[in-house]
């Protein structure tokens, strides 16, 4: 007798001859015939009751009361909601939970026709996800929304099991941006549709605050038609005033509830990523967590940093290779953003040319001094990097999609650094409209 390949709790796969013997010696609640040669035997211990899941029901109902459909993220209508398993990864605080709950509100008249759970709930200290899903499925729930999946050990194996065992079950789950959900070791990758949710774009921020509603722009639209587009937008809102606000507090949707405490809340979010999410995704010890925190604060005080990895490693009493791994982990966690000359690979770690914080809000939350030039570059790298391939360039600040060179600067910036180079542009801060190849920096926040 052995556990079946599904690894369902208290579920055993045996041949029919063994089943007869087992039934004589052990009290069996159910016998499930499966294929032609095997049966499933389920022990009669701790049968789950509706009262057992009441804490989860209460939490689900409480969470969904806090959500409305007034504003939906850019990703909402891009998701193929018909897929059987949908994985959404993203940084802490970007709105993954809200997106799940909005989908429930939009689809279901009766919210109890589906179920939402978060795997960091204390309930799972004494119960298993397998038990819960089996209970829900046998009680008519065929669509389940699972939050914080990385908090559950062997989560990918569990999802694969659900996919294989329950033919009409749909699962939408979220997890840390550090998860490589598209490269699952349990062969979950070919069974699921993966997505990534980034923080608010400047365009989304304007819509979220009620300042302006505008459709996303393609990069080619910005490069070719920026004058007319910028004039149209500036005629509808005070764009530079809103841009300054966005740089300080606009990337994470929870700025509306945090208000003046937003920088403190965001610093705490970064801390939680390192202390809680990192150990949940990878096998790291306390010493590594402490060194990662120290590395982040060193970088935060010196961005944009052109690193000498050996010196950085020495400053945190670590090796060069370990320091590189920490930097790349913070990049995956959307706390840092590494600028490299080649396509970034988490399997082959190379020294970054520059290190930035992931977004401008983090600069205000973690850094003691916010440099204006760094602020501009961080905004551009973040907004364009969320939709395009951005790398270091020998001429100009950034190389976009391997062909477009962009220099970022203030109103006095000229073309001296990218003179006579084809497909070169200036992204200029502090201006409402531009001309020729001089494009307002804020307009690059309309890409998604």
- Count of strand segments: 16
Helix content: 25-40%
Distance between the termini: 54 Å
Lateral strand order in the biggest sheet: 6-7-8-5-9
Please state the structural category.
Answer: alpha/beta
The low-confidence parts are: 1-14, 19-45
Radius of gyration: 25 Å
Main pleated-sheet profile: 5 strands, parallel
User: What global shape is seen?
Assistant: globular
Oligomeric nature of the chains: single chain
Q: Tally the helices: what do you get?
A: 15
What do the pLDDT scores average to?
89
Percentage of residues in DSSP E strands: 15-25%
Provide an overview of this structure.
- It contains 15 helices and 16 strands.
- It has helices at residues 16-25, 54-64, 96-107, 129-138, 155-165, 202-208, 219-234, 239-249, 255-258, 262-281, 286-300, 309-315, 320-332, 360-366, 372-385, and strands at residues 2-3, 11-15, 28-34, 38-43, 85-90, 115-118, 143-147, 170-176, 193-197, 336-339, 354-357, 390-392, 398-400, 404-409, 424-428, 438-440.
- Helix 8 crosses helix 14.
- Helix content is 38%, strand content 17%.
Give short descriptive properties of this protein:
alpha/beta; 15 helices; globular; single chain; five-stranded mixed sheet; 448 residues; five-stranded parallel sheet; disordered N terminus
């Amino acid at each position: 007798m052995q556990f079946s390949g599904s690894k369902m709790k208290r579920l055993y796969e045996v041949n029919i001859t063994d089943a007869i013997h087992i039934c004589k010696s052990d009290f069996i609640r159910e016998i499930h015939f499966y294929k032609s040669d095997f049966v499933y035997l389920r022990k009669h211990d701790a049968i789950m009751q509706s009262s057992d899941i009441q804490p989860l029901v209460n939490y689900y109902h409480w969470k969904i009361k806090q959500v409305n459909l007034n504003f939906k993220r850019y990703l909402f209508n891009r998701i193929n909601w018909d897929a059987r398993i949908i994985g959404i990864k993203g940084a802490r605080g970007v709105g993954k939970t809200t997106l799940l709950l909005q989908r429930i509100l939009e689809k279901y008249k009766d919210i109890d026709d589906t179920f939402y759970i978060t795997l960091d709930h204390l309930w799972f200290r004494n119960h298993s996800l397998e038990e819960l899903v089996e209970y829900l499925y046998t009680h008519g729930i065929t669509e389940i929304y699972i939050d914080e999946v990385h908090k559950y050990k062997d989560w990918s194996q569990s999802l694969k099991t659900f996919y294989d065992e329950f033919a009409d079950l749909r699962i939408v789950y979220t997890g840390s941006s550090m998860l490589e959900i598209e490269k699952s070791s349990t062969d979950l990758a070919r069974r699921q549709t993966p997505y990534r949710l980034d923080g608010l774009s400047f365009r989304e921020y304007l819509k979220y605050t009620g300042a302006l509603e505008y459709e996303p722009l393609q990069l080619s639209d910005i490069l070719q038609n920026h004058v007319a587009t910028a004039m149209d937008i500036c005629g509808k809102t005070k764009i530079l005033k809103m841009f300054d606000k966005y740089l300080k507090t606009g990337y994470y949707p929870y700025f509306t509830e945090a208000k003046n405490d937003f920088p403190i809340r965001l610093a705490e979010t970064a801390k939680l990523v390192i202390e809680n999410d990192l150990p949940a995704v990878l096998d790291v010890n306390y010493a590594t967590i402490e060194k990662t925190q120290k590395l982040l604060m060193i970088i935060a005080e010196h961005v944009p940093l052109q690193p000498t990895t050996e010196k950085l490693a020495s400053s945190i009493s670590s090796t060069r290779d370990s320091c590189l791994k920490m930097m790349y982990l913070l990049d995956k966690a959307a706390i840092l953003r590494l600028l490299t000359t080649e396509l970034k690979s988490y399997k082959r770690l190379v020294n970054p040319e520059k290190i930035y914080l992931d977004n401008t809000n983090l600069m205000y939350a973690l850094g003691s001094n916010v440099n204006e030039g760094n602020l501009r570059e961080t905004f551009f790298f973040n907004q364009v990097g969320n939709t395009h391939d951005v790398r270091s360039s020998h001429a100009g600040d950034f190389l976009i999609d391997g062909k477009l060179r962009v220099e970022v600067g203030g109103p006095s910036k000229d073309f001296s650094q990218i003179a006579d180079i084809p497909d070169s542009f200036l992204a200029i801060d502090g201006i409402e409209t531009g001309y020729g190849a001089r494009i307002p920096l804020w307009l690059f926040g309309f890409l998604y």
